[in-house]
Please model this.
Amino acid sequence: MNLHLAINKFLSYLEIEKKYSQNTILTYSIALNDFEKYLYDSNNTIDNIEEIGINDIRPFLGWLDENHKSKTTLKLKLSAVKSFFKFLKRKQIIQVNPAELILSPKKEKKLPNYLLEDEVCAMINSFDNNDIEEFQSKALIELIYNTGLRISEALQLKEGDISKNNDFINVIGKGNKARSVPIGKNTIKTLLQLISRRNEFYETKNYINKKSISIFINKNGDTLTPLQAYKIIHKAMENYTESNQKSPHILRHSFATHLLNNGADIQSVSEMLGHSSLSSTQVYTHLSIENLKETYKKSHPKA
Model:
């Protein structure tokens, strides 16, 4: 069986037997057409699908790389090729799967965006403390930056989650894992002021148990939603950063990056972020290393 016919047979299988969506089938089709084009460009005149070996497939990654494809794209297209040959082997169209031993490239890790320290300070200081809505926005941004909380963790906080000594907050993170996160005096002061000014903000005041109420609430007394919080933070960032991303998670990235840049150990930062392993936190060390390199270049006379 020739390659083109085998590809069509595989695509029909995805549509009829696997019932994949047209978009998914199109993705496979484009990947396998690229593989066919690669073989043609490489002058591999292969008449029979059985003639394709591992040494014919492996350079496909290099061909994609030369055509300026990202590692994510390489991984996706190789996955399509591997699925294709796995299908051929299962249907006994070929006796040996030549793609079985080919390893997929590691996914490239994108370094997280973060704000500069002076950008965060300027943004926090820009709010009008006399306006209760602006004061709550300030408190939310200050909390996430000071503690590194996820937006979902910040929005579910209640007054009762603040420790008696006002130096820790108790958080329920991913997988319902509880952790205690240290918090600065200024941020605690801001949160307590926000709680004491609740009646300025709410239209509904008939609450039975004050400590059961989320700290961040809209005018109707409901917990602030992630979308509402996103809009607040995105709007606040617009005037103070050129970063492409303007979201609550950027504040979390900034928290981790600034701690590491100022000498915090990675294990402590990982625990504060609620990461299950150090590998999730290590991406921030790359940012710190780049910062050190830049400082060295600017400061060292022999750099």
In short: The chain has a mean pLDDT of 83. Residues 3-90 form a domain with the DNA polymerase; domain 1 fold (CATH 1.10.150.130). Residues 34 and 77 are 8 Å apart (CA to CA). Strands lie at 168-172, 178-182.
